Amino acid sequence: MCSYITEKTAIFGSAKGADGWSSVASAHVYYDHPYHAALDHALSIDFLSPDSERKIAVELSAESARALVASILAALESGQDAHG
Predict the structure, then answer these.
(1) Domain of 69?
(2) In the chain, which ranges are continuous DSSP H helix?
């Protein structure tokens, strides 16, 4: 059964898709049945443009999502230490 529980957050950045670079203004994150990945469940992240017409989607296994979170936190810490 799908829960459709989605965490939404405002973000500021850019993403590159098939049509090139565009700004992103929000991210929708949920753990449910994926559309494409060959998994029973996946952590899905949708990065949306300010007008919500363009979307970059990612589907990750739970293990991959946890590893990505750890890598993001490590990169932020070491990057901020190096760059102030």
Answers:
(1) 7-83
(2) 62-83
The one-letter amino acid code at 82 reads A
C-alpha closest to that of 24 among 38, 10, 43: 10
Q: What is the pLDDT along the chain (84 residues), one digit of tens a residue?
A: 677 789 999 999 999 988 889 999 999 999 999 999 999 999 999 999 998 788 899 999 999 999 999 999 999 999 988 887
Beta strand 55-60 pairing with 42-48: antiparallel
Is 1 contained in some domain? no
Q: Locate 75 and state its tokens.
A: 């990169």
Contact between residue 10 and residue 24 where contact means Cβ atoms under 8 Å apart: no
Residue 19: inside a domain, yes or no? Answer: yes
Domain count, the chain: 1
